[in-house]
């Protein structure tokens, strides 16, 4: 998630738009205080609404936990897992190093 100031909106509009097109959330601040969040206009927003889209994007960017995302979206953790799966977002994220260690421990 990138932060833009109100002044940046004039000077870096293209960057804000490219970020949104890439599925990135952005926070716009005025004098250091958040004023609004720019949520990408995508399938999640269209089908699920703003609260769910925000929860999905924040979880996908690893800004909030699964349980926090579920609360934000107004659903259970189980329902949130299903929702994330519907949009191809993995709930369990393992680095290549962690996977290698898991495989070594298993075998």
Keywords:
3 strands, 7 helices, 14% strand, 2 domains, 107 residues, globular
Beta content: 5-15%
Q: Provide mean pLDDT, rounded.
A: 90
Portion of residues within helices: 55-70%
Low-confidence stretches: none
Q: Count up the domains.
A: 2
Largest sheet: 3 strands, mixed
Over all CA atoms, what is the radius of gyration?
Answer: 17 Å
**End-to-end separation:** 39 Å
Element layout with pairings:
Elements: E1 2-5, H1 6-11, H2 13-21, E2 26-30, E3 33-38, H3 43-48, H4 50-60, H5 66-73, H6 77-86, H7 96-106
Parallel strand pairs: 1-2
Antiparallel strand pairs: 2-3
In short:
With 107 residues, this protein is of the alpha+beta class.
What does this structure look like?
The chain has helices at residues 6-11, 13-21, 43-48, 50-60, 66-73, 77-86, 96-106, and strands at residues 2-5, 26-30, 33-38. It is of the alpha+beta class. It has two domains: 1-38, YefM-like domain (YefM-like fold), CATH 3.40.1620.10; 40-107, no CATH class. A three-stranded mixed beta sheet has the order 1-2-3. A hairpin with a 2-residue loop joins strand 2 (26-30) and strand 3 (33-38). The longest helix is centred in the middle third of the chain and has 11 residues, at 50-60. The protein is globular. The model has no long low-confidence stretch (mean pLDDT 90).
């Amino acid at each position: 998630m990138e932060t833009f100031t109100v002044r940046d909106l004039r000077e870096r509009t293209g960057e804000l738009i490219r970020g949104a097109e890439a599925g990135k959330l952005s926070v716009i601040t005025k004098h250091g205080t958040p004023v609004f969040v720019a949520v990408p206009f995508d399938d999640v927003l269209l089908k699920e609404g703003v609260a769910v889209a925000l929860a999905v994007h924040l979880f996908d960017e690893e800004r909030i936990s699964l349980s926090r995302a579920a609360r934000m979206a107004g659903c259970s953790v189980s329902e949130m897992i299903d929702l994330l799966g519907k949009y191809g977002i993995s709930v369990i994220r393992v680095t290549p190093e962690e996977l290698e260690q898991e495989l070594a421990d298993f075998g």
